[in-house]
């Protein structure tokens, strides 16, 4: 099959060559060989300079006795042969009798050849018309009118690979699959539900963080049901021209009605379903018209029986309430982060077909990846395979997966970076301070790995991993998080007598946690069990840009004082822990300076078992 781009290029080249040939022909045909005037031609005959001549059609070719304009041959295009004949025929006969003109010849037909004159112009017009038709046909697609196709919905159907996706390919979402199983059964056997007077949900909204598998679940529903599937992005409805988005919504449901039962999947529906008529930036008429049409199509006077709408978003808080009501999106299925069991199942799915070594324990990998989404776990297994291939291994080992885990979290190592010795020493004590404080706190997650090798923007890192999945965080746990974040700064000041910018991110995170505890979670005894935050920290289209505070300046000052108090208390506790464990701090730092990386077992060997500190006693 020929490449369309190659065909188009050859077509344009051919047309360009034809135009050049026609232009050259016109130039040659309209440009005389010599720039002669009619008066000069008459003078040549009167001055007896013409030795012989011929007239072919309207072209007069004269052979002269002496060169004129550098040539003994002169050519002149006669405007009218009859005029030339009337003016010079008697003179020509006289000169011919005297032998001045040796020979002359008149062509039989001296009428104007309009076909020869107009043909080049007709050819050029046809070529230009053909080029214009070709370009407009390409712009509109298959030669149709572009404007008539502009309002069509840009839907996509499932490929053969996607059609093979079923619920067996979706792991770690058992409850979500159970909710969607009813949709599949209705699409397969609607009579079973209609006999009981039941109505299948018209719409199901998949909500959850990015990468949790919302789009994969939609494909699995279509694969299980074996019905038509039309996929479109929310941004495909929004256009510059008013009315196009609404027209595309109508076209989308019209196409779905032709192949019922059918599933419509709208990805990132928040692009078109944001709240209407609020604030600066929320009154985009085109978006509102598109949303209004979507509301009508989902639950209006027109019935769309057998059409189920699946939509996905990670910003359900910005959607218009009219879109979320029963009758449109009857169900909201939350697709959250997988737990440890779900992560293990997801890893099993993504390691299918990958040669794993005997030491690989996917359960251990699942324990070490809390907070990972399905996309993160897929990336982890892929990075592990890439590392194994880079090392010319035939199997993916546990070490490859562990290294890939750290790489996904913090980025690749920068071993080639030249670091001054005083910076290495500062980084070693900074990370050792974090690790010692984490180890001393009874409710903090255990230390998993310490490294002073730069990764990404970090000069070093201390990773602590929870032993179990955590749904809620207690006040004591959050307080210990703040203490652990300040461990690096406290160790720098205590051992080196100086502080650095390396603790900037730690301080920022600690301040954010403290502010959330005071202003959002009601965990301050001084402020009380009151929340002073609306829960919407971001400005986005669909809400007002100016979000006024719902509390006074006096309360704001009290919040600031309480945040500073919590940070100062945590820093004092951190210093007490490091003073009591000064020898452990130096031992861990010296080990890092010698080996750069420290595993959990090596850390426990250096510091020994956990012992109570003065701050905990």
Notes on the protein architecture:
It is a single chain. By secondary structure, this protein is of the alpha/beta class. The protein folds into four domains: 81 residues, name from scop; 175 residues, P-loop containing nucleotide triphosphate hydrolases (Rossmann fold, 3-Layer(aba) Sandwich), CATH 3.40.50; 70 residues, Helicase, Ruva Protein, domain 3; 187 residues, Peptidase M41 (Methane Monooxygenase Hydroxylase, Chain G, domain 1), CATH 1.20.58.760. It contains 23 helices and twelve strands. Helix 10 packs parallel to helix 11, helix 13 crosses helix 15 and helix 19 crosses helix 21. The longest helix has 28 residues. The C terminus is likely disordered.
* Biggest sheet, spatial arrangement of strands: 6-7-8-5-9
Percentage of residues in strands: 5-15%
Task: Write down the Rg.
Answer: 42 Å
Query: Rough shape?
Result: elongated
């Amino acid at each position: 099959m020929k490449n369309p781009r190659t065909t188009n290029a050859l077509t344009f080249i051919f047309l360009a060559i034809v135009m050049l040939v026609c232009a050259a022909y016109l130039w040659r045909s309209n440009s005389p060989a010599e720039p002669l005037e009619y008066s000069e031609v008459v003078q040549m005959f009167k001055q007896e300079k013409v030795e012989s001549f011929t007239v072919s059609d309207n072209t007069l070719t004269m052979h002269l006795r002496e060169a004129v304009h550098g040539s003994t041959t002169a050519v002149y295009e006669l405007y009218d042969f009859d005029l030339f004949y009337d003016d010079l025929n008697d003179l020509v006969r006289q000169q011919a009798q005297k032998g001045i003109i040796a020979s002359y010849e008149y062509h039989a037909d001296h009428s104007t050849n309009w076909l020869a004159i107009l043909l080049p112009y007709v050819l050029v017009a046809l070529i230009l018309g053909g080029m214009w038709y070709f370009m407009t046909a390409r712009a509109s697609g298959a030669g149709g009118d572009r404007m008539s196709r502009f309002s069509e919905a840009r839907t996509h159907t499932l490929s053969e690979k996607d059609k093979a996706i079923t619920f067996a390919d979706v792991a770690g979402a058992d409850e979500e699959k159970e909710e969607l199983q009813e949709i599949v059964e209705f699409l397969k056997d609607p009579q079973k539900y209609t006999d009981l007077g039941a109505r299948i949900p018209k719409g199901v909204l998949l909500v959850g963080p990015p990468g949790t598998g919302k789009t994969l679940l939609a494909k699995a529903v279509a694969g299980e049901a074996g019905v038509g599937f039309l996929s479109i992005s929310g941004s495909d409805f929004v256009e510059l021209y008013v009315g196009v988005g609404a027209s595309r919504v109508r076209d989308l449901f019209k196409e779905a009605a032709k192949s019922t039962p059918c599933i419509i999947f709208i990805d990132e529906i928040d692009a078109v379903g944001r709240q209407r008529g609020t604030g600066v930036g929320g009154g985009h008429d085109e978006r509102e018209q598109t949303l209004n049409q979507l509301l009508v199509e989902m639950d209006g006077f027109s019935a769309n029986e057998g059409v189920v709408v699946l939509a996905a978003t990670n910003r359900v808080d910005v959607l218009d309430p009219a879109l979320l009501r029963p009758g449109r999106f009857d169900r909201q299925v939350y697709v959250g982060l997988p737990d440890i069991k779900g992560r293990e199942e997801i890893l099993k799915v993504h390691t299918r077909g990958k040669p794993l070594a005997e030491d690989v324990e996917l359960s251990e990998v699942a324990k070490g990846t809390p907070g990972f989404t399905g996309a993160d776990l897929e990336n982890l297994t892929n990075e592990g395979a890439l590392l194994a291939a880079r090392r010319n291994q035939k199997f993916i080992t546990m070490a490859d997966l562990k290294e890939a885990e750290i790489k996904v979290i913090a980025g690749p190592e920068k071993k080639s970076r030249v670091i001054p010795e005083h910076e290495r020493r500062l980084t070693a004590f900074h990370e050792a301070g974090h690790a010692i404080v984490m180890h001393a706190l009874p409710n903090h997650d255990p230390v998993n790995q310490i490294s002073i090798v730069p990764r990404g923007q970090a000069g070093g890192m201390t990773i602590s991993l929870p032993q179990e999945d955590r749904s809620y965080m207690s006040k004591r746990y959050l307080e210990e998080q703040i203490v652990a974040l300040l461990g690096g700064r406290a160790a720098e000041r205590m051992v080196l007598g100086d502080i650095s910018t390396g603790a900037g991110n730690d301080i920022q995170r600690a301040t954010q946690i403290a502010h959330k505890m005071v202003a959002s979670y009601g965990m301050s005894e001084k402020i009380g069990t009151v929340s002073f935050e609306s829960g919407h920290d971001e400005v986005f289209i669909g809400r007002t840009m100016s979000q006024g505070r719902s509390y006074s300046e006096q309360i704001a000052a009290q919040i600031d004082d309480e945040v500073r108090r919590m940070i100062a208390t945590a820093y004092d506790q951190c210093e007490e822990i490091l003073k009591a464990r000064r020898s452990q701090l130096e031992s861990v730092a010296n080990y890092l300076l010698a080996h750069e990386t420290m595993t959990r077992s090596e850390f426990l060997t250096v510091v020994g078992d956990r012992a109570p500190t003065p701050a905990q006693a």
